[in-house]
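Backbones bend. Shown next:

***
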Amino acid sequence: MTPPDHGVASGRYLTFDREQWAALRAATPLTLGEADLESLRGINERIDLDEVAAIYLPLSRLLNLYVAATQQLHKASAAFLGTVAPKVPYVIGVAGSVAVGKSTFARILQALLARWPDHPKVDLVTTDGFLYPNAVLEARGIMNRKGFPESYDTRRLLQFLRDLKSGAAEVRAPVYSHVVYDIVAGEETVVCRPDILIIEGLNVLQVGASADGAPVTEFVSDYFDFSIYLDADEADIEEFYVQRFLFLCESVFQDPTSFFRHYADLTREEAIATARFIWREINGKNLRENIAPTKERAGLQFEKGRDHRVTAVRLRRL
């Protein structure tokens, strides 16, 4: 049997094309069916089981190995200290632009990892819940910068991760609604000692200065055991965003409670122009200024083509 081609070394990373990466699946079984995938797909994404087998199964195998090694490391540390090893979740960060497919990626990864017998409890939290409420953003004059680093309650997010990694029996995260475009008062996501936590968001790899200019000594990514960045050419991501916006105009924006109800009656040409304006003034700017510069901090990078399929993978050397 011919061993798989292990990619091309490039600085700190090993680079794999699609076929090289797919070969690293080895004997990992496909545990999702078409019905499962249908429930996990995001808006305007055409991901199929072939993509899951070629891209996600090698990833789930890699992470299963990493989680097992980390669990052994905790046991070794406890043995040295003469204590009982507390259950500490393995935390995976997923970063990337608006519309690049982070949410779908994270849901599929969650479903696959939960099917491994050694870590059946896998939770998923998005950083949308840690955005400041609209009232706060309005008061600070940054409503048009929602999604930028300063629009997040980073202190609360850090406290959430601190408590999680300290072995707290229960930690809570706020809930965000994409329909009303705001934090849902009184609702929380409760996380109870999962084996793995996936945390997905735009700026989870951010290491910039604080809003008040004070020195920053603690970052969200300090609590990650592994991090992933989803990437694509900006022109392709803009098209992903435009197509998603058109779909939303015909679906979610039709809801009378939607924050964006005023977009529902736009003509197709008006909707495209509006989407490109939002991309140019907000999402594209955030990508270039804040998100893309964090790419090299990720342990694994997935490069997507214009059809949303992964074309290349870069794995950082240990």
